[in-house]
């Protein structure tokens, strides 16, 4: 197993025994007999767990030395799991060390299997803390961008204002939310807005793209796994549910989830716990669930493709995002935002939009919604010569019926239209559309991302 363990004990025979026991379990073992070396170790966050003796001076068994060095370690690496070791079964001392921040307590002489199990649990806790810390760092960066006027939601239309009114009301609750809308409308952006205005805004926001997860890896990705659970499970790993504990879990494209996996998801939501792949021990979770899809889940329920009880579970509040073609002048507001962004990125300075270019943007139907607008503006900024974005700089694909213009279409354009047609025919059901087109669901999903559908 990958992992870095620190052992601190003044008895060298014990150090040797622990090194021998652990060398087949972890990649790196550091053993020190003098605890004073801890002071000069600098950043200890690279370690995954520590085994720390309680007593270092002869004839002294109060445990105060161990508690002192526990505090020193926690001061250097607050999230680092520490297991205390002592030859004396003093429960008061055990409780005191736990209150000081130790994660567990073992007695000498130890049982090898019990010690290994205790260390595995501590290692797993450390991995969980690191992942949560990284997610929180990402959230802090997101909040920093927002505070620096990188506005997350742009729009002045009535449709958007009404939607945001609901978003702000819902955010203050713990209710599960289902966000629906066409591809490219910004469902994840709305999910983050709900989290940002919620009581959990200082906790983790963990997003999962359900359409991109291979079905065989679904349980591992969401629920985690233990070492040896399957061929590539070389170490314990927490899932997204556990990583988002205390915060918000966003399940994007939930309509792509197969029927058998819907049952597993429903069970976890009902019981508020997950069971890692390869384990039978439940882990309690506390998450606020936000789901999103471009599919019509009510029709999927009628067709037997989506569990009705799961729909009720995820759909306490339903938020429908309007397509860009129904948002009027929001198209221009968004275009200005992207022009500023890409003008800076590509060193074009301040750019303005010619009135003819504005009309061209407003007249277009934007089937790919905000994602298509963003890509179009980025391309236009690159092509623009001078400080004015002309209508000729804006390249739009007017999509006529394939049968009317088939000879003039490229293979890529034909493929795009076939995919769009199949998804439309099956109301966004990727599984059914993939079967019609003769490709895997994963391949279809990747192509829709590529074409901006």
UniProtKB/TrEMBL annotation:
The keyword Ribonucleoprotein does not apply. SMART domains: AAA, REC. GO terms for biological process: phosphorelay signal transduction system; regulation of DNA-templated transcription. The modification 4-aspartylphosphate is found at residue 53. InterPro entries: AAA+_ATPase, AAA_lid_NorR, CheY-like_superfamily, Homeodomain-like_sf, HTH_Fis, P-loop_NTPase, Sig_transdc_resp-reg_receiver, Sigma_54_int. Keywords: ATP-binding, DNA-binding, Nucleotide-binding, Phosphoprotein, Transcription, Transcription regulation. Residues 153-382 form the Sigma-54 factor interaction domain. Pfam families: AAA_lid_14 (PF25601), HTH_8 (PF02954), Response_reg (PF00072), Sigma54_activat (PF00158). Residues 4-123 form the Response regulatory domain. CDD domains: AAA. GO terms for molecular function: ATP binding; sequence-specific DNA binding. The keyword Transcription applies. This is Sigma-54-dependent Fis family transcriptional regulator.
């Amino acid at each position: 197993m990958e992992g870095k363990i620190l052992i601190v004990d003044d008895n060298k025979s014990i150090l040797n025994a622990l090194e021998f026991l652990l060398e087949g379990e972890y990649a790196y073992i550091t053993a020190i007999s003098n605890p004073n070396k801890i002071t000069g170790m600098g950043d200890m966050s690279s370690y995954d767990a520590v085994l720390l003796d309680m007593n270092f001076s002869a004839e002294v068994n109060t445990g105060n030395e161990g508690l002192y060095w526990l505090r020193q370690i926690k001061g250097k690496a607050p999230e680092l799991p520490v297991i205390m070791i002592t030859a004396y079964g003093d429960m008061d001392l055990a409780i005191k060390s736990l209150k000081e921040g130790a994660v567990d307590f073992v007695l000498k002489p130890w049982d090898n299997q019990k010690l290994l199990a205790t260390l595995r649990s501590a290692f797993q806790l450390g991995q969980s803390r690191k992942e949560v810390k990284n997610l929180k760092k990402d959230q802090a960066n997101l909040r920093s961008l927002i505070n620096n006027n990188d506005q997350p939601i742009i729009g002045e239309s009535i449709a958007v204002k009404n939607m945001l009114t609901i978003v702000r009301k819902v955010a203050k609750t713990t209710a599960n939310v289902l966000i629906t809308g066409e591809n490219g409308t910004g469902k994840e952006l709305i999910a983050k807005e709900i989290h940002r205005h919620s009581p959990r805004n200082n906790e983790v926001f963990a997003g999962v793209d359900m359409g991109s997860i291979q079905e065989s890896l679904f349980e591992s990705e969401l629920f985690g796994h233990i070492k040896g659970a399957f061929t590539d499970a070389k170490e314990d790993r927490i899932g997204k549910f556990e990583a988002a504990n205390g915060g918000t879990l966003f399940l994007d494209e939930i309509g792509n989830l197969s029927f058998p996996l819907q049952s597993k998801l429903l069970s976890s939501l009902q019981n508020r716990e997950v069971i890692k792949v390869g384990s039978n021990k439940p882990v309690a979770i506390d998450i606020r669930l936000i789901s999103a899809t471009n599919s019509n889940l009510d029709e999927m329920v009628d067709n037997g493709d989506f569990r009705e009880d799961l729909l009720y579970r995820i759909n306490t509040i339903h938020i429908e995002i309007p397509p860009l073609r129904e948002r009027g002048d929001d198209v221009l507001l968004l275009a200005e935002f992207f022009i500023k962004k890409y003008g800076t990125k590509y060193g074009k300075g301040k750019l303005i939009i010619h009135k003819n270019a504005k009309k061209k943007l407003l007249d277009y139907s934007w089937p790919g919604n905000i994602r298509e607008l963003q890509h179009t503006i980025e391309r236009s900024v690159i092509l623009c010569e001078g400080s004015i974005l002309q209508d000729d700089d804006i390249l739009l694909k007017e999509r006529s019926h394939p049968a009317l213009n088939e000879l003039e279409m490229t293979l890529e354009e034909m493929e795009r239209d076939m995919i769009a047609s199949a998804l439309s025919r099956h109301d966004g059901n990727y599984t059914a559309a993939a079967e019609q087109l003769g490709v895997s669901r994963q391949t279809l999903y990747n192509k829709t991302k590529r074409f901006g559908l």
